[in-house]
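Course exercise 7: structure representation. Students receive a sequence record and must write out the corresponding structure in token form. The form below is the worked example handed out in class, using DUF3445 domain-containing protein (315 residues). Read each field label carefully; the graders check that inputs and outputs are placed in the correct fields and that the protein name is recorded exactly as given.

STUDENT ID: A-19
EXERCISE PROTEIN: DUF3445 domain-containing protein
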Amino acid sequence: MYSVNMEPHVRGGASPVYNAMFDIDEHYVGDMADRAITLDQDPLRCQVLPHMETAEWDTLELLMENLANDYPEHFSLTKNDDEWHWINRPLDIDQKFTFGREETLPFGPFEYITRQVQGDFSLQDQRDNNLYMDGGMVTSQADWSLNFDVGMSFHEWHGPVPLAHESGVFDRALQYLLRMQCGKPVRRLNWTMTANPRLDTSPENYPLWGPEKAAITPENVGHRMCLRVELQTLYRLPRSNAILFSIRGYLIRLEELAKVKKWAVRMHRVIRDLHPRIAEYKGLPRYRQYVVDYFAPHDDGRVLNAGIGPEQDGI
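STUDENT ANSWER:
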């Protein structure tokens, strides 16, 4: 029913999103503008507890180095001891600063760099044989709140997840993460469903997106409902020993997903056979049957190969 489904996060693989450590795509400028608007409206979407300052600089270095390495046409980083020069061409940023001195940047180091990278980020401090969510930049989350979770332990912020606690999934996951090594990042995939192509389905904005679920009908479910897949990557940070958790969300309308036969068949079976408590946790009961009925005609009973590849040349 549950699997931690961890694997090494290495470049290359079944999807183009694995070609770089952090995926930058054609929505980059718009996503960063949207993040700035969200932070203007709700500054608490970015919080870092005071003892995480070293982890902030770790994060800045990790992101800058990887962006400059993977996208040299868009980003560059020059280091002269502690005097650094960062250039972000798509956002027209040309910043000289002193590494380790927050006053030389317009924001704290964590906020500064995560305002320039797609996806959400949280910082986990490791102490007392546990992990604590002691910071984050979270503006495009699926129904959870950084402001509520900040400072919580690993089991506390995963508290709402059904069935997994009884089966020991989070006990095993925590022990695995506590043993993560620097320079050996890992990744996993997660999923849920969203009404309309909206990444920010936070509790803070529920009045904006909550009513949209009530508008789903059998006639519009293919166009209005989206599968949300999250590429979650984790990095051990070298100076602080903290863990950076990156959550990059991708949306696809069901009518687009249905054009790939393997995906349509798998979607039908997963939603049809999902445990009721998991379906409730993911917010599916209102429209679950609509989704099952939408994909049922695509399912001819074939045996599916493992893996996420589409296994077809075109649509």
